[in-house]
Design brief:
Blueprint (H helix, E strand, L loop, with lengths): L3 H11 L2 H13 L1 H4 L3 H4 L3 H8 L10 H13 L1 H4 L3 H5 L9 H13 L4 E5 L4 H8 L7 E8 L15 E8 L4 E9 L5 E5 L2 E5 L12 E5 L4 E5 L10 E5 L2 E5 L2 E2 L2 E2 L3 E5 L4 E4 L11 E4 L3 E5 L2 E2 L8 E2 L2 E6 L4 E6 L8 E5 L2 E5 L2 E4 L4 E4 L3 E4 L22 E5 L2 E5 L2 E2 L2 E2 L3 E4 L7 E2 L15 E8 L1 H7 L5 E5 L7 E3 L1
Antiparallel strand pairs: 1-33, 2-3, 2-32, 3-4, 5-6, 6-7, 7-8, 9-10, 10-13, 11-12, 13-14, 15-16, 16-19, 17-18, 19-20, 21-22, 22-25, 23-24, 26-27, 27-30, 28-29, 30-31, 33-34
Helix pairs in contact: 1-2
């Protein structure tokens, strides 16, 4: 806290990214406290702009940023007042309540700056676009789970049973239930900021879905988007370059080789190159603008002779082609997540020659882009042997949720941080600890805080301009 602003200024002035990332993260987390310190008032103009324009600021109200700007200007008004309009262009006024905007206007009048507020109604999307996005402190960062039913409630007559949708706040380890969705197992799910996308999945009658749903956390409701061309479950489903990619998996006839993508702007599905062969029971993740399907099982030997696929299928979003990377080992019903420069593969089933089949494992592997193992990173095995666990990342940590093991399901939550020799079990567990779960979809999601939600659901936002007699008018939207 005593020197972080100095180190951030040093890193920013030299564009030294290895130092810039951690210092920005630290300063952003403590921004409200640091903005009241003497060192903050000594920041130069460009360094201050780099901070107040960052999405990473952990502030619950945009008024905190405005007040920081005012303190900086008041420190040396003679030379800094001319910069006020330019600084205020980085204050996200549409994220303020009318009461907060009134304080902004009072402050500008104190600076002898003429102020004109031009009001107009804005929809939720218009307000978000006008503001430039939410700051990090304006939402809860966590994991959302699709397909966590109360298994003891399920029976052949439960065709209309809803799938409970849960949000797990990683900072507090508290659960919150979101609006339900029709019961699905093995759906594909991914998120883009505060929006959760769910594609496909398997219904209770074992049929597969081609539906695509979106949950908007700002509005707290589900909407249906155009369906996929193919119903599928156990498939890869990821976001990259403003598109959603769905690949392989199963439908009602067996494993698939087809793949398609959904353009979020056009809201249309389009086919992409088919896989070289059908693939199921694989792990998947995105890494460096590529989609990775890891291991699994293929039916190249015929529908009755499935065989393990010892390798990766990699879809390059630039060349729009699939490539194979062969490896000497097998991944089956595992889960994968990319972190830093590696892909971590967790759990699954491994070949057991003595048993003549596969056995559950908690083994974890760190892989490089070319499929080779990174011997420099030692990742311990998960304390339980599981397949299809939910896997996410947060603050340089890998989290593992639930999973399947023989005739039972786990309800445990573990996390591991690179450099540590063991996994840590969280005090919290899955919402139904008596039954556990597997076959659910999970992904990271940003859930706005209640104050932000109420603000966005009120159609009374303002597009504000601050006029200065010394500078051109600056639109602050």
């Amino acid at each position: 806290m005593e020197n972080c602003l100095e180190f951030y200024t040093l890193a920013y002035s030299h564009n030294h990214r290895p130092l810039l990332r951690p210092t920005l993260s630290y300063v952003a987390f403590h921004f409200e406290h640091l903005s009241e310190s003497p060192a903050f008032l000594l920041l130069d103009f460009s360094t201050l702009v780099s901070l107040i324009s960052s999405d990473n600021l952990v502030v619950e109200s945009e008024l905190t940023v405005h007040r920081a700007v005012c303190r900086w200007v008041k420190c040396r008004p003679g030379e800094r007042l001319l910069k006020l309009a330019e600084l205020m262009a980085h204050v996200r006024l549409p994220l303020m309540t009318p009461e907060e905007l009134a304080e902004v206007q009072d402050d500008m009048e104190e600076f002898c700056q003429p102020v004109q507020l031009q009001w107009k109604e804005l929809s939720s999307e218009e307000r978000l676009k006008a503001s430039g996005g939410l700051r990090q402190g304006m939402y809860h960062q966590g994991v959302v789970f699709i397909g966590l039913p109360k298994w003891n409630e399920i029976s052949p007559e439960s065709e209309e049973l809803d799938s409970h949708v849960h949000f797990f706040d990683l900072s507090t380890e508290q659960w919150e239930q979101l609006p339900d969705l029709k019961l699905l197992t093995f759906p594909g799910c991914t998120s883009v900021s505060h929006k959760l996308y769910v594609a496909g999945g398997r219904f209770l009658d074992n049929s597969c879905s081609d539906n695509l749903f979106v949950y908007d956390a700002l509005w707290g409701r589900w909407s249906q988007l155009p369906s996929m061309s193919t119903a599928r479950a156990w498939h890869a489903f990821h976001f990259c370059n403003n598109k959603l990619y769905a690949a392989a998996g199963w439908d009602n006839t067996g494993p698939l080789a087809s793949a398609e993508c959904f353009d979020l702007e056009q809201e249309e599905w389009a086919p992409i190159s088919n896989l070289p062969f059908s693939l199921a029971c694989f792990a998947s993740t995105t890494f460096r603008r590529k989609l990775y399907l890891i291991g699994g099982e293929t039916n190249m030997g015929g529908p009755d002779l499935p065989s393990p696929f010892r390798g990766f299928l990699v879809y390059d979003l630039v060349s729009e082609a699939w490539n194979q990377v062969l490896v000497a080992f097998e991944f089956y019903e595992a889960s994968a997540i990319a972190l830093d420069n590696c892909i971590f593969v967790v759990g699954g089933l491994s070949e057991d020659i003595a048993l003549g089949g596969r056995r559950f494992t908690g083994h974890c592997t760190c892989l490089l882009e070319d499929g080779t193992m990174d011997r420099g990173i030692c990742i311990p095995s998960v304390p339980i042997s599981i397949s299809y666990p939910g896997v996410t990342r947060w603050q340089k940590k890998i989290y593992v949720f639930g999973g399947n093991c023989n005739d039972s399901c786990s309800s445990a939550i573990h996390y591991w941080e690179p450099g540590f020799l063991s996994w840590t079990r969280c005090e919290a567990s899955l919402p139904d600890p008596n039954y556990g779960a597997f076959g659910f979809g999970c992904t990271e999601l940003k859930v706005p805080r209640k104050r932000i939600v109420s603000l966005f659901q009120t159609r009374s936002a303002a597009s504000v301009s601050i006029d200065s007699t010394q500078q051109d008018a600056v639109m602050l939207a």
